[in-house]
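Most newcomers find our protein records easier to grasp once they have seen one. Nothing more is needed to start thinking about how sequence determines fold. Here is such a record, shown just as it appears in the course material:
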Amino acid sequence: MKELIDDSRPIFVQIAERIENDILSGNLPEESQAPSTNQFAAHYQINPATAAKGINLLVEEGILYKKRGIGMFVVEGAREKLAEKRRGQFYEQYVETMLREAEKLAISREDVVRMIEQGGGKS
């Protein structure tokens, strides 16, 4: 759990992404309890309010829910919801960007597909 704290992005976003990654990988199954804000705060030596802000992002997105007096839990269906969200981000960040660059270089979509199928090797 130690690979956090990238100074280029807000810590609370990294906390949320860490939980998302654990859900997507199956390390944090649906209906299981998520780490508490105090656990994140102690482990990463950050303010508990910062950790809470990251967890609350996931509550707002419907990924986590609170069991009063017990803690935060992963919503049933969270893994698929996150996978769908990440697929959309992947398309926007990588596919659209790649296609725009290919267009600038006069590389056809067919050639892009061929390059991907060949593992990105040079022709």
Summary: The chain has five helices and two strands. Residues 34 and 73 are 5 Å apart (CA to CA). The mean pLDDT is 91. The longest strand covers residues 64-67.
